[in-house]
Amino acid sequence: MKKINRRSFLKALGTAAGAAALTGLTGCGGKTSAGTSAGSAAAAGEESVAGASLDIHFHSNNKYTISDGDGKLLPVFQKAADALGITVNNTANPVATNSVQEFELQATVQFPSDIYGGTSVRQAVNSYAALGAFLPLNELIEEHAPNLKAFLEEHDEVRRSLTAADGNIYFLSYLPDGGVGRTYFIRTDWLDKLGLEMPTTFDELESILYAFRNQDPNGNGQKDEIPVFNDKWEEIIRLANLWGARVYAYDTFNERVVMDENEQMYHAWIAPEFKEAMIGMHKWYADGLIDPEVFSRKANTARQTLWTQTNVGGMTHEFPASTGNYNYNAELLASVPEFHLAAFKPVCKNGKPFEEHHRVVAKDDGWAISAKCKNPVAAIKYMDWFFSPEGRIASNFGIEGESFTMVDGKPVFTDEVLSQTSVQTYLQTHYGAQLPIGFAQDFAYEVQWTPQEGVDAFDLYNSEVTYAKANPTLSFTEEEQAVYDTYVSTLNTYLNEEVTGFITGKLDVEAEWDAYVAKCKAMGVDELVKIYTSAYERYKSL
Ligand code: CA
Questions:
Q1: pTM of the entire structure?
Q2: Cα of 217 from ligand 1 centre, angstroms
Q3: Nearest by Cα to 318 from 454, 487, 191
Q4: Most CB contacts within 10 A, which of 14, 59, 353, 475?
Q5: Ligand 1 centroid vs 5 CA: distance in angstroms?
Q6: pLDDT per residue over 463-488, tens digit each?
Q7: Cα(131) to centroid of ligand 1, in Å?
Q8: 177 pLDDT exceeds 60?
Q9: Ligand 1 mean position, distance from CA 311 (Å)
């Protein structure tokens, strides 16, 4: 995230908010109902907000708002408004632009809409909240959000993940479901052709990759096979897992301070085993096992290019549903009828394999209520609706009779939905389902468009694979956040350059390693580890 001077924002908000930030009061001018006594909670929970109106500024994935291209509210958001008898207006710019910048622009006008949200804005919301710009939701939830309250009581890890450093909840996150993130997939048609078995050890995998490279499994007489590739270059770095090195804390590539089995934080990219991984990965790169264009290829094009278009790709580490679907890709099967992928379990050079990529408890995407909100009760009730039984179905599956039908009490997508290239994108753009507001994802949504090989991958990883200890979603104090903002972006830029050099051979790992570690220390690596440690200690005490 870019560095933001939030103190100047505090000045702009004026003395009322400044005082609120200092004394821990809620927002501006006593407009909130957060101070309502607990005794009236039950009665207040029934209170109607019909006739209220909410302005919502939500911008996600650099392109989505809660309205369609014509400015009409997306069906799921309209359904939520209808359920409460309120009016909802989209105030976010419908133009495709950077969602975080769209959010930050609103700081310059002091967040005038009622609800704010989008992708990757959790830390920013918590920082602005510390300056009085967003309402603490704890009492609002307690008194007016029975569905959300019940959900948080049932999911303590979610409650802790949503809690900011000052003990309040300001931000309701998108809560993924399903556990398994990426898994390893390999071409079983190539294994069959070369008379090889699925790999169960590092050495077996390595010899398979050399066979893919040297024995022409695509049968065109050319040495054009690319045994290992990824849709994103950041993901190829995670191959270091095969040498026993950790790489990312969870599914955000910027998070590189990880914890060991004893819950001690360390920076993954300067660990001794990471050095061994760089030496090994350089050898693989030099021997043609790793995609030579991995650092220059356009993101999210490798599977399409190296499977569908050129049939040269061997193995990857990707999401089970979308990857398994290549087994049913008509265009691909027309030219390579025998094409087939299956998942295999991680292997490790040190004999202790693990998978690192697990879905996070709470994403950095979601929404919050502005301190300027004219009706906080209506806002929290609107947010609560998405945790009600009908809201959970709508936020996952869309609209009954249109995107799904109920079969034996369960939502089942229509053929039209299931025939889409990307079910998720279709639901987001046509219905507003699966947009990353504060909602709880239901894995049943994904299972319906996951092919058998993807389901097999989920089962294999859920039942037989050891996962590395993942960081929970951590919240920083203002002081910690300032440290983070000072170091993390420039450090990561440096790490990316150096590690690219190590893998491609532009830099010699043995010769450069000590200087690289020293430079990382000079760039704040120890300070970062310190703030992650204190944030984690606080998380554990919640
Ligand atoms: Ca070939």
A1: 0.85
A2: 6
A3: 454
A4: 59
A5: 54
A6: 999 999 999 999 999 999 999 999 99
A7: 60
A8: yes
A9: 9
**DSSP per-residue codes, 400-465:** BTTTEEEETTEEEE-HHHHTSS-HHHHHHHHT-TT-SSS-B--THHHHTT--HHHHHHHHHHHHH-
Is the Cβ–Cβ distance between 510 and 279 less than 8 Å?
Answer: yes
Q: What does the block give as tokens for 415?
A: 């053929």
What's the CA-to-centroid distance between 333 and ligand 1, angstroms? 18
Residue 14 in this model has a pLDDT that exceeds 60: no
d(CA 201, CA 283): 18
Instruction: Give distance in angstroms: CA of 226 to centre of ligand 1.
Output: 9
Ligand 1 centre distance from Cα of residue 341 (Å)? 18
Task: State pLDDT tens for residues 312-365.
Answer: 999 999 999 999 999 999 999 999 999 999 999 999 999 999 999 999 999 999
The one-letter amino acid code at 227 reads P
**How many angstroms is it from 299 CA to the middle of ligand 1?**
24
Question: Of all helices (H) and strands (E), which one includes residue 330?
Answer: helix 330-335
Å from CA of 336 to ligand 1 middle: 13
CA of 225 from ligand 1 middle (Å) equals 5
The CA 212 to ligand 1 mean position distance, Å, reads 9
pLDDT in tens, 55-65: 999 999 999 99
Q: Which of 356, 324, 369, 363 is nearest to 441 (CA)?
A: 363
